[in-house]
Amino acid sequence: MYDILIIGAGPAGMTAGIYGIRGGKSVVMLEAVTYGGQTINTPEIENYPAIKTISGMEFAENLYKQVSELGGEIKYEKANKIEKLENGFKVSTEEGKSYEARSVIIATGAKNRPLGVAQEDRYRGAGISYCATCDGAFFRNKKVAVVGGGNTALEDGEVLSDLCEKVYIVHRRDEFRGDAANLARLKEKSNVEFVLNSTVEGLIGDAAIRSMTVKNKIDGSTRNLEVDGIFVAIGQMPDNKDFSDMVELDGPGYVSGQEDCKTNTDGIFVAGDCRTKKVRQIATAVGDGAVAGLAAVEYVNSLK
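User: That's the sequence. What structure does it adopt?
Assistant: Structure tokens below.
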């Protein structure tokens, strides 16, 4: 039986692991995809204290090395159930395995929110992407669109502007939620066009995307944008439904938890983008990880 089992190995999960191990506890992390979470898709991080600039991949690798050197375990399995035991918890995975621990930290992060338009699934991987740093090179010298208004959308637009002939930034409002510095850099790009107060209404193509229809929310007019690729950056959504019988979720599905990272179940904590919170940044995820890790250590100590 482990002292602390962490579901997720993003910045929050790995930070929790570091604090748990340094607290003298045995720690295991279950990660469904790869360590680093959404961070690995960020080309540059420029708002993390004391680090002027660093790539998301390098940031994730540094965290992973720190966890590994301390002796932390990461198993690449997707947790899908938490059960209460007399002396702790059992966490089962889709791979058919199970692990026991005295405490659990849920740090599942969040996944990309889809556009929600007809034929989106059909063109997923055939023109529709959710990661500019992953797929941008496939659209070199082509026309693309980025849908969204936050930092991810602005960062994607900047990456693509250096690769593509034309980049449309489609946003449903006339103001952006992203950082002013990111927006200012993007506005300097001659091949970037902002399509504001507009939503995606339809996708057109054959074997791959050929164009998209956008509708102006102000005057109701529609416009057809000829694009070879569409990068969706309209936010994220949590994936916590498998644990809803053990922890309370809010309306959108985030784990209910305050700044102490405690849930309604003693011994289960939550950290990072998967919990109810206003600001979801790497800095806040790491902060959550430290709080949850220390809280789990304190909880395990209280059982003795």
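The mean pLDDT is 94.
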